[in-house]
Amino acid sequence: MCGIVGYIGRQDALPILIEGLKHLEYRGYDSAGVAILGKDLQIQKSQGHIAALEAKLVQMDGTTGLAHTRWATHGRPSDLNAHPFTDCSGAMAIVHNGIIENFQALKEDLLAKGHTFVSETDTETLVHLFEEHYKGDLAEAVRAGLKKVVGSYAVAVIHRDHPGMLVAARNENPLVVGVSADGEGVMASDVTPLLDFTHEFTFLEDGDLVVLREGEFQLMDLDGEPVERPVHVVDWNLEDAQKGGFEHFMLKEIFEQPQAILDSMMGRIVEEDLTALAPPDVDKIKIIACGTSYHAGLIGKYILESLAGLDTTVEMASEYRYSNLAKESALVVAITQSGETIDTISAVREAKRRGTSTLAITNVVGSTITREADQTIYTRAGPEIGVAATKTFITQLIAIYLLAFALGAKRRTIGAEHLRVLREELRRLPSQVQQVLNNRDLIKGVAEPIHEAHDVYFIGRNINYPSALEGALKLKEISYIHAEGYPAGEMKHGPIALVGEDTPIIAIVVDDPVRPKMLSNIMEVSARDAPVFAVGLEDDVELAKLVDVVIPVPRTNPIFSPVVVLVSLQLLAYFVAHMRKCSIDKPRNLAKSVTVE
Ligand code: AGP
Which of 168, 325, 466, 481 fits a disulfide with 156 by CB distance 3.0 to 4.6 angstroms? Predict the structure, then answer.
């Protein structure tokens, strides 16, 4: 997730674009850059926060320009990988948000035609592609180029020979345009940097291309046919806008999950060979992680064992490094959204000292873990501002599914037909998560009786036992209610002594082989007068009779059920914390990356 700003008007564009980038910094902050069209096309860019760019910026005169703040997906954060990019002639500049899935094939073709590349990014391919198609009409070159592109983009382009003109297009990445009362043409990834200019916006839809000039813009499709989109009046202040109208970043990030899942899968379900990330002789996996990432690892154990037939153990990173193992024989997979958790980094160092290969799963390109581990899979969730991990966690699961598919195919533990079905089911997850999000009001209703509880127990079995652990962790970290996750079968071995009418139980029941056992465990806690709320299938009539309320989730293959279950439990935790008036985005005593042991 990156941020784009564009401006065409009569004012000096540079300070306007830099100010705009500052409002978009929450979308990406590993590098930034700006292109100004004056007498010539000028570009400056820098790794790091916008302040780093500002510190070395020299004045560039011109009243048309583009700017970008980057959240790396292809290529680590660096000056060279920062946007904007130019073509070989230096006449064109582009900025891009999204992922070009077929960039390798396009790049090879362009290299063969004599184009030269300076960065590791997928984005640079676009500017050369547009150059290849440029015959004097910028919009036509962009249209023709984009027809060859597979992937997602919000892309904006300026050209030395077209002063006062900006061409932009969208597919699966947001882009909004507007014109101020003074006729300035503005565009951006979201309305945040544009509120000083106008409150009337037109949001591009997938397949739309816009030609923006001073005082006007034209919308068309990739064939050049005009399209019409409504004008929306957005009456937000800056903070509302950064949160996309959501009250908290956490809620916004929960709602971004269909897109985050899509981005994490893009180009990887079939095309990219993830088996290359694991040594050929791997027969055991050890996952090391902390907190929510540890729970992703526990779910990963079920996934890797059942799909790839790999003996998988999971250890808390803070414990692994002090264990007495002299030699490590398993492939060590370190999961960390931030890539900076010192417990996990130290555990990776220890694993390497014990003589094994290491693979990191992280969301932050270029983070410390990526330099320590032998290989990395990026989760592509985009920046997560809320301290409680939501979209970074769900995309960790996606990375594990993809890894398990690849290893299962290689080890022949998944047959071709089974793999085809699993891939289809994985592709359905974004829309199934959207269905869960559509239940927000119902989930809010369940939060009402829970928000006054002192203790809450989450119970599940098999792959949804770790879902219970994660549901409990989410609730305790943001609502400060004591919550525990238990394997449902374990309640009778002790914890049931604590259960009574004041202890709500959240039971996770999907259509899997342990369902009958879950129903029995629900009856056991109900018999002790506990109110029971279930996360379960909409059409599970038997379950509905046993519990107070069912939070419905769509039917999935049980192996994918933690995704839909946990999005529901994230929302539940959020609404409970909201009712308790807690500091949701910055819970007390917690930090987004934990760099102390
Ligand atoms: C998640 O909601 C928590 N804030 C915390 O448990 C977190 O998962 C843990 O600190 C590990 O962080 P990491 O994924 O960045 O390594």
Answer: 168
Is the C-alpha dihedral spanning 324, 328, 329, 330 positive or negative? positive
Q: What pLDDT score was predicted for residue 273?
A: 65
Give the model's pLDDT for residue 224. Answer: 96
Q: Half-sphere exposure of 327 toward its Cβ, with a 13 Å CA cutoff? A: 1
Q: Using a 6 Å cutoff on CB, does residue 338 contact ligand 1?
A: yes
266 CB within 6 A, ligand 1 = no
Total-model pTM: 0.83
CATH 3.40.50.970 fits 435-584, yes or no: no
Class of domain 3-240: alpha beta
The domain spans of the chain are: 3-240, 243-427, 435-584
| Ligand 1: centre distance to CA 593 (Å) | 7
Tokens 């060859």 belong to which residue? 148
Choose one of 293, 348, 378, 595 to mutate for the ligand 1 pocket test, by most ligand atoms within 8 angstroms of C-beta. Answer: 293
What residues contact 393, with CB distance under 8 A and at least 6 apart? 292, 293, 295, 296, 337, 470, 566
CA-based angle 281:282:288, to the nearest 5? 155
249-288: pLDDT as tens digits: 999 999 999 999 999 998 787 666 677 776 777 889 999 9
Name 534's bridge partners.
Answer: 507, 550
Q: Which of 290, 336, 332 is nearest to 312 (CA)?
A: 332
Model pLDDT for residues 462-477, shown as the tens digit of each residue? 999 999 999 999 999 9
DSSP state of 172: B
Question: Does residue 9 contact residue 159 with C-beta atoms inside 8 Å?
Answer: no
- Does ligand 1 come within 6 angstroms of the Cβ of 297? no
- Measured CA to CA, the distance from residue 314 to residue 295 in angstroms comes to 9
The residue among 81, 58, 70, 68 whose CA lies nearest residue 34 is 68
Q: Classify 507 as helix, strand or coil.
A: strand
| Residue 393, pLDDT score | 98
Give the fold, CATH level 3, of 243-427. Answer: Rossmann fold (3.40.50)
- CB distance 232 to 200 below 8 Å: yes
Sign of the CA dihedral with 216 first, then 22, 234, and 168 last = positive
Same fold, 3-240 and 243-427: no
Amino acid code (one letter) for 363: N
